[in-house]
Specification:
- The structure is a single chain.
- By secondary structure, the protein is an alpha/beta fold.
- The strands form 4 sheets. Strands 7-6-5-14-13-12-10-8 form an 8-stranded parallel sheet.
- Helix 11 crosses helix 12.
- The longest helix has 28 residues.
Length: about 425
């Protein structure tokens, strides 16, 4: 039985193609900077949006047409949904997928029942992975939907909720390891506060750190070798989330001695909500060796919430790939489409159109970034701009050889600083525009 009978294998047809069910730029085997596009981009499908999203919003219920759904959250439906997911991913040609535990398996009346349901679905996921060659980019636990997490999970004022969250993450880590997942993500869905009048902020931070240390300890115990990732987001659903942006996460990890065990999974729409560009968030994380993976989506600058739209801006995808190429790739990470089709795009085929567009946007961005790097236009300019730090007083400062006394003597003798050179912002923006073709 086919769940997408009108769609065959999505293939690369080149930039001149007008076929909406073909790639114009994503050619998996094309080599860019010595590596195939498939290996550079490591695309993944988000199980939660693509196979569980029904298009609901605060003003109306879901209207997505999903003929395979029976309206239940039963184990049988979850097992059937695995078949749907792998047919879709095979036809799309992606190498990875991601999930929350409650996306793939229904929550039971007890923790034991929930674990049993997850075991059953993981068994089928494992078989499908073996049959198709599609692998798990990362797993995670949903610690935000159930009412028990109303005050958070590891930061809850209720110690029993902390214990429940720990048990749930333990099981999700085991499932991720069993499926060969190469990363595990922690997203603090409700790890934050709504009101400081009723919040012991420092204690909640300490509890969050304790929780992550326990996870690291258990990771070593079971021999899970995947990368731990934290996903920054400043707000939604809480007023303020503790993993608010890349800088906050790096600072938190260093304060609590976790910086060697975690990297960051940066999301475009979360960067927008934090008042940053994706370019900024990626550059910050990468500068400190902490960029591990990417949630590929976009927000709407006219809307103040997490819209999770599919990426389509070549400016943005080129900037993303410049950072990724500059750091030598994402390692075990990838580009996961944490994005959902618009409510008005409700037919199953719209899932293909959305992912094809996102994959092409990043493949095109990869080619643009590689061309910019090949010509060295940005790298050479930046090197020249900071040339005063490569020798003389600049090199002494960076080496820790110059103290305030020496710096004062240097400037008293020189009298005035050398004239500044122009940043040439407009010129550089014009240069980048030349590659957007």
């Amino acid at each position: 039985m086919s769940f997408f009978p009108e769609v065959s294998q999505i293939k690369y047809e080149g930039p001149d193609s007008t076929n909406p069910l073909a790639f114009r730029h994503y050619n998996p085997s094309e080599v860019v900077e010595g590596k195939t596009m498939k290996d550079h981009l490591r695309f993944g499908v988000a199980y939660w949006h693509t196979f569980r999203g029904m298009g609901g919003d605060p003003f109306g219920p879901g209207c997505a047409v999903r003929p395979w759904e029976d309206g239940t959250d039963s184990l049988d439906m979850a097992l059937k949904r695995v078949d749907v997911a792998f047919e879709f991913m095979q036809k799309l040609g992606v190498p990875f997928y991601c999930f929350h535990d409650r996306d793939v398996a229904p929550e039971g009346d007890t923790l034991a029942e929930s674990n049993k349901n997850l075991d059953a679905v993981v068994k089928k996921l494992g078989q499908k992975q073996k049959d198709t060659g599609i692998n798990l980019l990362w797993g995670t636990a949903n610690l935000f939907s159930n009412p028990r997490f109303v005050h958070g999970a590891s930061t809850s004022c209720n110690a029993d909720v902390f214990a429940y969250a720990a048990a749930q993450v333990k099981k999700a880590m085991e499932a991720t390891k069993e499926l060969g997942g190469v990363n595990y993500v922690f997203w603090g869905g409700r790890e934050g506060y709504m009101n400081l009048y009723n919040t012991d902020l420092r204690r909640e931070f300490d509890h969050l750190a304790k929780f992550l240390h326990l996870a690291v300890e258990y990771k070593k115990k079971i021999g899970f070798t995947g990368q731990f990732l934290i996903e920054p987001k400043p707000k939604e659903p809480t007023k303020h989330q503790y993993d608010s942006d890349a800088a906050a996460c790096v600072a938190f990890l260093r304060i609590y001695g976790l910086e060697k065990d975690f990297k960051l999974n940066i999301e475009t729409n979360h960067a927008t909500l934090a008042g940053h560009s994706m370019h900024h968030e990626l550059t910050y994380a990468s500068s400190y060796g902490m960029l591990g993976s990417i949630d590929a989506n976009r927000g709407d600058e006219l809307l103040g919430w997490d819209t999770d739209q599919f990426p389509n801006s070549l400016y943005e995808t080129a900037q993303v790939m410049l950072v990724v190429l500059n750091q030598g790739g994402l390692g075990s990470g990838g580009l996961n489409f944490d994005a959902k089709v618009r409510r008005e795009s409700f037919e199953p085929i719209d899932l293909f159109h959305a992912h094809i567009g996102g994959m092409d946007a990043f493949a095109h961005g990869l080619k643009i970034a590689a061309a910019i790097r090949k010509d060295g236009v940005l790298k050479d300019f930046v090197k020249q701009r900071y040339a005063s730090w490569d020798s003389g007083i600049g090199a002494d400062i960076e080496a820790g050889k110059a103290k305030f006394d020496e710096l004062e003597a240097y400037m008293l003798k020189k009298g005035e600083a050398e004239k500044n050179s122009s940043g040439r912002q407009e010129m550089l923006e014009n240069v980048v525009n030349r590659y957007l073709r």
